[in-house]
Every structure is written in C-alpha cells, then in structure tokens.
Write a structure and sequence with these properties.
This protein is of the alpha+beta class. Helix content is 50%, strand content 18%. Helix 7 packs antiparallel against helix 8 and helix 7 runs parallel beside helix 9. The mean pLDDT is 91.
C-alpha cells in the first residue's frame, strides 16, 4: 500500500465530492470554486512503511481576506491564488483527539471512503456553509482570543485574521481586539510582531464602508 493508492481512491471513490462541484487540484486536494473563493479538501498521508495514516483537512478561501492577508504574510506570488483563509482537520471538527485512518489494505481504503462521506454529509458541508460567513468566523476566533479555537493553531495568523475580519464587519470591538491581541504578543518573535503591527496600520486606514 502506497500514498498514491490513497490519492487514486479520492478520484475513484469520492464521486460525491465531484458531484458536488469539487475538482482535483494536484493529487492531494480537491477544490470547489465558489462566489467567495473556494472550498477545499486536502488529504494528508503519512507513510510509516507498515501502515499509512490518513487525515483530512477542510479549508475555505475567501478572496477578499486573502487579497489583503497575502500582502502581510509574504506568500510566494505563485501560491497566492491558493491560500486558504480558514482550515480545520476532521479531528478538530469532530472535537476528538484523533480521527485518523490507519490503512493496511484495500478494505481499509473502502471503509475510510464510506466513513469520510458520512463525515462530510453530517459535518463537512455544514462547515463550509457556516465558515464562509465572516460573522461566524469572528465569533469563533474573537469571542475569546486567548483560548484555543477550531480554525487556527498559529497565534499570530489568528490575530491577524481576527482584526481584519473584525474591521471588515465593522465590529465595535475592533479597537479592543487590537489591544487584546497586542497584549498576547509577548511570546511572539519580532517578525510576527512586525507583520501584526503592519496589518493593524493598514486596517486602521479602512473606513467603515469597506
């Protein structure tokens, strides 16, 4: 069993994604273009020789956010059209410690395919529906900025999206959120601090109609 077997399965067994408008992007992802950007499914395969460990990651790109964020994240220009605004693993969406698939045989592949389809129908598609909305992202990441959240693990990136989205939705909490996130900077490196402050300077120039 090899990682390529997993990717081939995605094209063969994940017809429910294809029927929903997803198209293969490279061999490890599927993308569905939307009015706001795209939704994605990424397949992470770890090869331990005797077994393959597979995990699925859902992502959402919101073009408006990425057009701004990529200026401050110093993303390679060739990759900027495919950056994602929010992502979450299947495990995090299910709020469990581990939701990985251990693959030893073709039977395991088919079992994984059935399980993932069920997950997408119950949780995956609703995830896309919920978190392409800026107000819902704001609630998830900005209600308690010092607590873990579903959509981000990198504290600096979370802070940057947090203030940008807060400004974009004209939240009255924007000024206080800037100070809250700034207060969480103590353990960040100088590069992260600088790009956060650069983004703050930019968002401060946006008027309430943007």
């Amino acid at each position: 069993m090899k990682p390529d077997d997993i990717y081939k399965l995605a094209g063969k067994e994940f017809t429910f994604l294809i029927n929903s408008g997803f198209k293969p992007y490279k061999k490890e992802s599927l993308i569905k273009e939307t009015t706001y950007g795209f939704n994605s499914v990424s397949i992470l395969v770890s090869d331990y020789k005797t077994e393959l460990i597979v995990e699925f990651i859902l992502g959402i790109r919101i073009n408006f956010l990425e057009d701004i964020m990529n200026k401050f994240r110093k993303i390679n220009p060739t990759l900027q059209n495919y950056t994602k605004s929010v992502m979450a693993t299947q495990s995090k969406i299910l709020n469990i410690d581990e939701k990985e698939y251990k693959i030893y045989s073709d039977i395991d592949l088919l079992t994984m395919a059935d399980s993932f389809k069920e997950f997408m129908e119950k949780y995956g598609f609703p995830f896309y529906e919920k978190f392409h909305n800026l107000n819902n992202i704001d609630k998830e990441i900005n209600i308690a900025p010092d607590k873990p959240c579903l959509l981000f693990t990198d504290k600096c990136i979370r802070a940057m999206y947090g203030i940008l989205i807060s400004k974009a939705i004209n939240s009255p909490r924007y000024p206080s959120l800037v100070e809250i996130y700034r207060g969480l900077l103590s353990d960040w490196n100088e590069f992260d601090k600088a790009r956060f402050e650069d983004l703050v300077s930019f968002t401060n120039t946006l008027n309430d109609k943007n």
